[in-house]
Structures are given as structure tokens and as C-alpha cells.
From TrEMBL:
S-adenosyl-L-methionine binds at residues 70, 176. Radical SAM enzyme that catalyzes the addition of the adenosyl radical to the double bond of 3-[(1-carboxyvinyl)oxy]benzoate, leading to aminodeoxyfutalosine (AFL), a key intermediate in the formation of menaquinone (MK, vitamin K2) from chorismate. InterPro entries: Aldolase_TIM (IPR013785), CofH/MnqC-like_C (IPR045567), F420 (IPR034405), FO_synthase_su2 (IPR020050), MqnE (IPR022432), rSAM (IPR007197), rSAM_sf (IPR058240). Keywords: 4Fe-4S, Iron, Iron-sulfur, Menaquinone biosynthesis, Metal-binding, S-adenosyl-L-methionine, Transferase. This is Aminodeoxyfutalosine synthase. Pathway: Quinol/quinone metabolism; menaquinone biosynthesis. The lineage of its organism: Bacteria, Pseudomonadati, Thermodesulfobacteriota, Desulfuromonadia, Geobacterales. PROSITE patterns: RADICAL_SAM (PS51918). Belongs to the radical SAM superfamily. MqnE family. Binds 1 [4Fe-4S] cluster. The cluster is coordinated with 3 cysteines and an exchangeable S-adenosyl-L-methionine. HAMAP family: MqnE. NCBIfam families: CofH family radical SAM protein, mena_SCO4494.
Length: 359
């Protein structure tokens, strides 16, 4: 029988936790003990630093050929509120972001049936020319795979052309839960979990750093979450290309998936973050994405093993279309205050976790 005491011993001895250990943590009600252990591990890795960046999200289009059941963002091309931004609108937003101190643009969107791969290459080139100081973090593994399909290129070739055009790193979206039975229920049209991992493996081989997410709080079990994290940990052992793990609390409004939930509980959010910190021993960073968690839980998460709060964001659609109650943007001052009040050191980072300034 795995007990919290034996897990604690293992963690203090630097031993890796098993999937059974992680399940035992999920079964435990001792949230504070789990959090304290996760905070200790985080302290060894990151000291008192809490990272954030100044960034701006741009979602080129909400038109998507997939119909993921949990998603309230995607539209069919003929829907009244379908949109596709023009090239100059997107470049304009990137330039505006630089004026507001941003160092990163986060670019992800739907799988549009008519936009070409060339359109996306041009978008990267134009942003690079007009806003050369911005790091472009763009396109989930799902989009990369789609570009390969529509251009009849291999994923390796797609990545090489994107990098040449200005791609700096990849965000962690599209992972959902990597377990196939869960994907069949929530996103049957999406690439498989194995394909998601393969695209990230190829991105790491191409020299890109990438992030990894986990969408939780829908039909998945604790065992599915732990399997998901085990698959990420395995790939990270092989490539070392992941920077940060980001659990995404599912926002349940306006999507086709109707479940008897008003969203994840604060307890589940904190436990999930803490377990991730303990289980993913080879991930340097753990992000509490305040957009989905809300500012308050994200702040409390800083005492549960979290060392990153994402960024200022500006104009978030994916969570807000699904009812997220958080604001669309946080100012630099507010992020700094949130972190300071928690007794930590706010550190502005760039996308690749280089420290820019601390406060
Ligand atoms: O892949 C979709 C998720 C992801 C909902 O890498 C939802 O730094 C909650 O991946 N409720 C896209 N989540 C967002 C994403 C992300 C966000 C911030 C930072 C980074 C990073 C990545 O959002 C999708 C999907 O898993 N999602 N619908 C929803 N209703
Ligand atoms: Fe499309 Fe992404 Fe929404 Fe799925 S989650 S429907 S792939 S936009």
C-alpha cells in the first residue's frame, strides 16, 4: 500500500514517483501535505522565483474542420460569428503588442478548410519583419499536422519551413488527454495522442522548445490524467524539449459536451498542479494558467508547486467563449502584485525562460 509517508520519503530521496504513487496522491484528501511536498520540490528547482511574460494572444480564425466536443471556440465556415482575421490586422496587433512591452506573440487557431500553408508562412514572415523583437510561439501539434496534410509535406518539412519563416517555439495545446479512449469521447476527429507526441518529438529534434498541456475536468479519470503525464514524462526523458507543463481546467459553457459540472473545483485544481510537480520530475516549470483558473486559485497555486503564471495575454478567446470568469488581460503591475503578495519574487521572462528582470 502506497502511503503519503512513503511518497514523501521517495520525493526527499530524489526518487521518481510511479503511476501508482500519483494515483495514491489523487486518492488522498491531505491537500496541504501534497502541496507542501510539491512546494518543496519547486523550491529546489526555482527558488522563490515566479515567472511571467508580457505577451499577446492572436487567434487567426475560429473556423475549424474539427468539432471537439469540449470546445466552445470553433465554428463552421458559414456560422454568423465565424471570423478570420486579415493579415494586416494580425500584423497590426503584433506591432501594437511590442509598443505595450510584449516579448511574445502566442498564435493559435482553428483548422480552416481554405487557408493555405503559404498563408501561415507569410504571416510569420510579416510579423518577423514588422515586429522583429517578438518571439513567435505558434501552432499546436494539431495545426502542424494539419499543415502537413494540406501542403502534402512531411511534418519535418513543415517545421523546417515554419522555423525559416520565424517560428520560435510551439505552445502546448491539442494534447487534451493523450489516452485514446478519452479522445474518442471528447475529440474523435483530432490527431491521436501518439501523433501529438510524435509532432513534439520532431519539433524537439528540429531544435524547438515546446510546451505541454492537459485538459482536465471533463470525462477523464485520475488514471487517465496520470497516464497522460507518464507519456509526457517518457518523451521528456528522451528529448528534454518540453519547458513547462500546463494543466488546463475545462470551462464547461457553450460547448457540445454537456456534463453535470460547473467546472473544476479549487481543490482539484490545486491537487492536480501539485501532483504534476511531483510526478513530472523532468519538467523545469509548472504553469498555473490564470485565464482558466481565475486569479485567486492561480495565486494560491504558488504555494502548491507552481512557478509560472503565463502572461498578460490580452484578448483571450478559447476560455472566454467557454465562460471563463477571469479578465481578458492582466497588467504587468497586477501580475507583479499578485506574486509579491504570495511572498515570491516576480521575474519577467522571455518565452524560453531567460530572465529579463525581477521585481
Ligand atoms: O488545445 C479548448 C484548450 C487549448 C477549452 O503553451 C479549453 O504556453 C478549457 O494550449 N476550457 C489551447 N480549455 C490553449 C493552450 C495554451 C494556453 C496558454 C498557454 C499555452 C502555452 C497553451 O485550450 C486547447 C484545448 O486543450 N481548450 N476549449 C475549454 N472550454
Ligand atoms: Fe478545432 Fe482546436 Fe476547437 Fe478542436 S479544440 S474544435 S481542433 S479549435
Amino acid at each position: 500500500m502506497t502511503t503519503l509517508a512513503t511518497i514523501k520519503e521517495k520525493v526527499h530521496a530524489g526518487q521518481r514517483l510511479s503511476e501508482d504513487d500519483a494515483l495514491a496522491l489523487y486518492a488522498s484528501n491531505d491537500l496541504l501535505a501534497i502541496g507542501e511536498l510539491a512546494a518543496w520540490v519547486n523550491e529546489q528547482k526555482n527558488g522563490a522565483n515566479v515567472y511571467f511574460n508580457v505577451n499577446r494572444h492572436i487567434n487567426p480564425t475560429n473556423v475549424c474542420v474539427n468539432r471537439c466536443a469540449f470546445c466552445a471556440f470553433s465554428r463552421t465556415a458559414d456560422a454568423d460569428d465565424a471570423y478570420t482575421l486579415a493579415m494586416d490586422q494580425m500584423v497590426g496587433r503584433a506591432v501594437e503588442a511590442v509598443g505595450q512591452g510584449a516579448t511574445e506573440v502566442h498564435l493559435v487557431g482553428g483548422l480552416h478548410p481554405d487557408l493555405t500553408f503559404e498563408f501561415y508562412l507569410e504571416l510569420l514572415r510579416d510579423i518577423r519583419i514588422s515586429a522583429p523583437s517578438l518571439h513567435i510561439k505558434a501552432f499546436t501539434a494539431v495545426e502542424i499536422d494539419y499543415f502537413a496534410q494540406i501542403s502534402q509535406l512531411t511534418v519535418e518539412q513543415v517545421l523546417a519551413q515554419l522555423i525559416e519563416a520565424g517560428l520560435g517555439s510551439m505552445p502546448g495545446g491539442g494534447a487534451e488527454i493523450l489516452v485514446e479512449e478519452v479522445r474518442q469521447k471528447i475529440c474523435p476527429e483530432k490527431i491521436s495522442g501518439q501523433r501529438w507526441l510524435e509532432v513534439h518529438r520532431l519539433a524537439h529534434h528540429a531544435g524547438l522548445k515546446t510546451n505541454a498541456t492537459m485538459l482536465y475536468g471533463h470525462v477523464e479519470t485520475a488514471a487517465d490524467r496520470v497516464r497522460h503525464m507518464a507519456l509526457l514524462r517518457e518523451l521528456q526523458d528522451q528529448t528534454g524539449g518540453f519547458q513547462v507543463f500546463i494543466p488546463l481546467a475545462w470551462q464547461p459553457e457553450n460547448s457540445p459536451l454537456k456534463l453535470d459540472t460547473k467546472g473544476t473545483s479549487g481543490l482539484d485544481d490545486l491537487k492536480t498542479l501539485a501532483i504534476a510537480r511531483l510526478f513530472l520530475d523532468n519538467f523545469p516549470h509548472l504553469k498555473a494558467y490564470w485565464i482558466m483558473l481565475g486569479e485567486k486559485i492561480a495565486q494560491v497555486a504558488l504555494a502548491f508547486g507552481v512557478d509560472d503564471l503565463d502572461g498578460t495575454v490580452v484578448e483571450e478567446k478559447i476560455g472566454h467563449d467557454a465562460g471563463a470568469a477571469s479578465p481578458q488581460s492582466l497588467t504587468l503591475e497586477r501580475l507583479i502584485r499578485l506574486i509579491k503578495v504570495a511572498g515570491k519574487t516576480p521575474v519577467e521572462r522571455d518565452t524560453l525562460y531567460n530572465q529579463l528582470r525581477s521585481f
